[in-house]
Design a protein that fits this description.
198 residues; binds S-adenosylmethionine; Rossmann fold; 7-stranded mixed sheet; alpha/beta; 40% helix
Length: 198
């Protein structure tokens, strides 16, 4: 068995044992521990939240004083008192209105693990994923508090610099990272952005 396969199986087994809905949970745990992205009492939005691993992790970090709002084209039932989930296509023209109606006010943290349906054509998947990410970034002035943080999944490719430059112009600190639970052969990376300038 290849090392990458063994690592994938390790996280899948660990998620099952520890009751997480997805192995993606460990990516968020690692990045929150490293960068202090989410604090107790925070309000958090999670775009592309199904099946719900990140919702479970964020729920623990914000505690009962905080709230987590998850959005996905797929329905998610999570059964946690501080987590609220909604069906939404982030590409729909009324996406921002729907988010504002569900969240009622600005949040401290925006998470996005959005992945389009993978076609296998690398350039196409990259462009589609970046398009979803830019839709999230466009919402920041309406949904993210000044001083807030974000975590955005991106697929590597030529548009990465465009995203990086946009983020650098609106956040105090911007890091590009690959958590150890992310498969080596996957082209995904994560932008961790701290302190939104507003
Ligand atoms: C990698 S999964 C997220 C895993 C999640 N972070 C977890 O911990 O379980 C990516 C999600 O993005 C969602 N997605 C893709 N396109 C979307 C869109 N246009 N609007 C909303 N969600 C979308 C998919 O339905 C999928 O559930």
């Amino acid at each position: 068995m290849k090392l990458s396969q063994a690592r994938r199986d390790f996280y899948r087994r660990k998620a099952k044992e520890e009751g997480y809905k997805s192995r993606a949970a460990y990516k968020l745990i690692e990045l929150v521990k490293k960068y202090g992205l989410i604090r107790a009492g925070d309000y958090v939005i999670d775009f592309g939240c199904a099946p719900g691993g990140w919702l479970q992790v964020a729920s623990k970090y914000v505690g009962l004083e905080g709230k987590v709002f998850g959005f996905d084209i797929k329905a998610v039932k999570i059964g946690l008192p501080n987590v609220f989930t909604y069906i939404l296509d982030i590409s729909s023209p009324d996406a921002l209105d729907v988010v504002k109606r569900c969240v009622l006010g600005e949040v401290n943290v925006v998470l996005s693990d959005l992945s389009p349906n993978i076609s296998g054509v690398w350039e196409v998947d990259h462009a589609k994923q970046i398009d979803l990410t830019l839709k999230v970034i466009e919402m920041f002035p309406n949904i993210l508090k000044q001083g807030g943080n974000c975590l955005l999944k991106v697929f590597q490719g030529p548009y990465l610099d465009l995203v990086r430059n946009r983020l650098k112009s609106i956040f105090d600190e911007v890091y590009l990272t690959k958590p150890s639970a992310s498969r080596k052969e996957s082209s995904e990376l994560y932008f961790v952005c701290l302190s939104y300038l507003g």
